[in-house]
């Protein structure tokens, strides 16, 4: 069985020998499955938002906000699982790593977590009913927004 998720690096000094070090396959599969859940949550959230704007069904904005928040949480969990897999590979005794850095895709995944999480919370705050303006007014007595 061939595993395509490996990292190549050169040894320091005169030797130009290439070592191929692989991450654990279980971590990669887990991270991919969690990322697919994230995509599913984002798609369901988008469908809820589109249905709420099209038919004036404001009650669909609350589930949409939760789906976006769950999508962001799934992304950060997936990123952390992959980060732990790479960290475990780097800490192995087979190779010595002088330095390593994360690529642009790590930054994009973290930015998408922040964007989805903050937008999900903001959408939830927008979808909440209007608070009473006066202390003697209850939420049921408030005038409807639409």
UniProtKB/TrEMBL annotation:
GO cellular component: L-type voltage-gated calcium channel complex
Function summary: Regulatory subunit of the voltage-gated calcium channel that gives rise to L-type calcium currents in skeletal muscle. Regulates channel inactivation kinetics.
Taxonomic lineage: Eukaryota, Metazoa, Chordata, Craniata, Vertebrata
Keywords, ordered alphabetically: Calcium, Calcium channel, Calcium transport, Cell membrane, Disulfide bond, Glycoprotein, Ion channel, Ion transport, Membrane, Transmembrane, Transmembrane helix, Transport, Voltage-gated channel
Protein name: Voltage-dependent calcium channel gamma-1 subunit
Superkingdom as given in the UniProt entry: Eukaryota
Localization in the cell: Cell membrane, Sarcolemma; Membrane
Record has Transport as a keyword: yes
Disulfide bond recorded as keyword: yes
Subunit (UniProt): Component of a calcium channel complex consisting of a pore-forming alpha subunit (CACNA1S) and the ancillary subunits CACNB1 or CACNB2, CACNG1 and CACNA2D1. The channel complex contains alpha, beta, gamma and delta subunits in a 1:1:1:1 ratio, i.e. it contains either CACNB1 or CACNB2.
Gene Ontology BP annotations: regulation of calcium ion transmembrane transport via high voltage-gated calcium channel
Recorded GO MF terms: calcium channel regulator activity; voltage-gated calcium channel activity
Family per similarity comment: Belongs to the PMP-22/EMP/MP20 family. CACNG subfamily.
Chief location category: membrane
Topological type in the membrane: Multi-pass membrane protein
TM region(s), chain numbering: 29-53, 65-82, 102-128
